[in-house]
Structures are given as C-alpha cells and as structure tokens.
Amino acid sequence: MNIQQMKLSAIASGVAISIAAMSSQAAEQPALAITGANSTTTITGGATINNGASFLAEVPASEAADLVATIRPASADVGQTGSLIVVADVPGYGFFNLLSGGIWIPWNGSDPVIPVSTKTLAAEEKISILEGLVGSDLGLTATSISAYVGYYTGGEFSNLTYSETPAVLTIAAPVAAGCPINTAATTSSTFKDKPVCILSGRITADTHLTSNNSYLLEGQVIIGENAVGGEKTRLTIDAGTYVFGQVGLNFLVIDKNGQLHANGSASKPVIFTYEGDDEATSLTRGQWGGIVINGSAPINEAGGVAEGEGSTGMYGGSDSTDNSGSMTYMQVKYAGQNITETNELNGIAFQAVGSGTNVDYVQVHNNSDDGVEFFGGTVNAKHIVLTGNEDDALDWTMGWNGKVQFVAVRQTSSSEHCIEADNNADNNDASPRANPTISNMTCVGDDAADGKGLRLRECTSASLSNFVVKTFASYCIDIDQTATFTNAGGSIANLNGNLAMINSRIDTACPLEDEAGDPFSVTDWFAAQSGSAVGNVDLGGSIGWTNGPMLNAVSPSIPAGTFFESVDYIGAIKDDTSDWTKGWTFTNFLD
C-alpha cells in the first residue's frame, strides 16, 4: 500500500465510513455551492464534534470530529437510481475516492470516480464521510480535509451534480500554553486543575477560550457592542472548558453585536459554574450571575426595545433571524445572584434572541430565579434540561415566538412553576403575541405543598403537544387573567386553538386549577384538548422523568415543520436506552 493509502486508512481506521442514516440534527449544515446537471439540487456539509448539534469552522485538535454531508436531489431525481460519490483531498497526500465498505483509493483527475453506493434516491441522502477523527493523534493539526460529494442518475456520469465547494474539516493547531488574547493571567490560582485566566469588562474583539485553562468572570463581562450592524464579536469556548464566577454579581452578557459559540460534546460539555462547584449541595443556588443574551429580534414592548435586568443593555429590534451564536452541550449551574432583593438573574436570559441562534443540549441547574426565560424574540431550542431551579423552569414573556422540542424538567422542594407563560404584563394584547410551539416536554415536581406545573396567563397563546406532567401538589395547569381566556376563545364552545395542549398526559394526583369567576374551567378546557387525558403517568428511571410502557402507548402528534423530529412518543424521554440526557448533564441534585 502506498503512502496515500496508508494515510487515509489511518484516518479512517476503527470508525465507520458509510452512507448510513445519521441521527436527526438540530443545526443547519453549511450550504455548499453546486455545479453540474441539476441546479435545484442542494448539498450541505461540515464538521461536527457532537453528532450535528453544531457545526464548527475549526475543530480542536484534541476532539473526535466527524465530516458529514447531505444531498437533497432535484425533485425529478428522487425515486430514480442514483450513484453517490465522495472524493476527499488530504493536503500533502492527494485526492482519494471513497468506495463501498469504507475503502479509500488514490484518485487523480483523469481517473473515473467510483460510486460509494448506487441506490434509489431518497429526498434526503445523508452521508457520513469521516467519523471520530482526532487530529492530534494523526499528526493532522492545522490541516483542512476537504470532501466533494455528489450523485449521478441512470448510470450516466454526464448527469453528475456535485459540490463545487467542499465540505471541510479544519483541524486547529495545537493549543499554546498561556492565556488567550483578551484574557489576563493570574499568578498562581487553578480551577479544576487548570490555570485560571480572567475575563473582564467589555470585549470587542474575537476571543477564543481553549480548554487548557479555566476562565474567571470578573464582574459584568460584556461581549460585543450594544449596536446593530457590522461583523459580530465572537466568544468561542472549546469543549471541556470551565467558565466560573466567584461568589457575587459576576456574569456574562452577550450584547446585540456579540455572539456566544460554546460548543461542547457529550463527553466534554462546556460548563459555567461558580468557584465552589466541588462543594456545592442540592441547596446551592445564586452564587454568581448567569448568562444574558441581547438580540435584535422583535419584542412587544412599546417602542420595540427594552432594558435588560441589571443594566445589561437594550434589546429588541426587527431582525427575526438574528444570530447570537451557538450553544450546544452546555451547563449553567448555581447562578441567579441578586441584583436587588426583587431582581435576580436567570440562568440564561434570551432577550430578543433571533432564530439564527442555535440552542441544543443545554442544562440550567439550581438557578435561584428562572432556569431559562425568553423575553420576546424568535429563538428555537432542543434538548433542554432544567433541574432544581428555584423559581420557574421555563418562562416566557414579551411576545416570544419560538419552537422547542425535548424538555426535561425536574423540580425540587424549593421550585415554583415548571412553566410560567406571559404575553405582556403591562399590555396583555401587545403584539407580536407570545405564541411558542413546544413539543415533547416532561414536567416532574417534588411533592412540595406549593408545587405548581403550568401557569398560562396575561393573554399568551401557545401550542403545547406531547406533554407529560406529574407531581405538582398545588396544580398541574392554571389559566389566569380574563384576557387569556378571551384569547383562547372565551368559552369552551368557542375554543379557537390559540391556547392548545394536545396529545398530553396529566397525572390523576395532579389537580387542575379551577377558579370561581373564570370564563370557563381549566378542567373543561383540558378535557376539550385533542388526544389529551388525565390518567396514570408511569414515569421512572433514576431521575424520574423517563417514560414507562403506559406513556409509550400514547400516540404523539408532532407539530409540522422541519424543526421538529418525528418521534413516536410523548414526553421528553422515551426510555432508558434512548435517554439523551445521559453523560453530559449534572444529575446529582435530588434533595
């Protein structure tokens, strides 16, 4: 075997290289320019360290990375016999052609391109090109591997359509010792056995926090400017990195012209916590501030803008697709420090954050206010874990219109609501009206006497489907304010779908909050929801949020649209085998 074959075999050894189905992905793969026979074909592809939750322009050399692509053939080609091709360029070693069975052979421009697979073309063909590549193990640091993918039909190579720009896996250079630019070194302290670098003040240049250090937030740290336009300032945080605050009002603000790119992996999440993390107990909360993200998406406050809590800057605007970065496999623990006695920071405050932002596999644990709160905006999220938060697990207001799927909530005795949902407290009919679409959420309380499930109020709309709610002694569902009932239709006979909870299960021991004087009862409203019922809720598992057989016998109703994964169960977690919370979350929290 020549050197080219040996090199690519080393890259591919021990891993599957296939045209197998890949798991559903939350993040959009980078779009690739195409050329060839069918201009309506689309091809995307890129590098990921977390099975497609995020795609990275540069992968840390120490992380196992995959290179993947997706071909969406022209509609006329779907159902036809097609041949899929992959050609890779490894700098210094030349081009290689991928064959079936994961075999790579050297290729030059005059050789025929041999297909990796010939099959009936589906509407979407997902291709796993390289899996589990660790650049530092193979001497491929500071290197970019490019892959060109395409297909042709009818056995005729003249019908070829392929990516004119390649899917690229760029491996970073080895991490240099010392503190990165825009951070300051400390003299002797360590955190989690790594040197500590300090972030402070307003940072207006791109900053990259590598995992060879831990990072201390000193006071209010602001990324970017509170302005719209121009290239955004990026704070990039590598997998396995700790960012922490000392006890006090130390917190991170991503301003309008900033972005947070905190992309961990299942084995190495990015963790935000406080200096006493190792000594924290189930009662530890409010030790540092949290994360505030200011965006430029619409809110329903008068004038279209609002001031963030704790003088964290103005947010709001007209850009519904605004991009505040990517947060994947990330934990936020023990935050919620008081600004005043009545003003505590949320674990993550999404303030007018737009739909261009990627949020997937994020946990907020033991915050002293809300776990996450959406202040207007259009941001979407998947795979959210909210544990032990003292006020509400998930809160929205100011006209949030986002989509969420897969939310696991476990409250403790000091928690309040699983969901608190508002449109606008000062003007219940303010527009745009809050109207999120949330699917596959499990809310589990803690038998506390004042434990509360879902509180829907102040004229919010919402499309809630495939919920499981259990163990809230005060109530499982409450609807408040006449405006909320009016928005829902005003009477049971006139329910209009503006406030809906379909194909959901509420435990028999969990009451519904019927109040005298309401236009209709919550009990009657829930009974009128399609596919929903009160009954036995057989949740189990070590955390108590995993479906049992009775729940898995309930057919789901998955919302339409490409964002939502078409799963065959209600609730957040189908079973122990498919528990997506395992490995990357903090679970040692039950009282």
**Outline:** globular
Number of strands: 43
In terms of DSSP E residues, the strand content is 35-45%
Structural classification: mainly beta
* Percent range of helical residues: under 10%
* Mean pLDDT rating: 93
Which regions are unreliable across 5 or more consecutive residues at pLDDT < 50? 1-7, 10-25
Count of the separate structural domains = 3
Largest sheet: 25 strands, mixed
How far is it from the N-terminal to the C-terminal residue, by CA?
A: 60 Å
User: Helix tally?
Assistant: 5
Give the C-alpha Rg.
Answer: 25 Å
Task: Using brief descriptors, characterize the structure shown.
single chain; 591 residues; mainly beta; 3 domains; 25-stranded mixed β-sheet; eight-stranded antiparallel β-sheet; 5 helices; 43 strands; globular
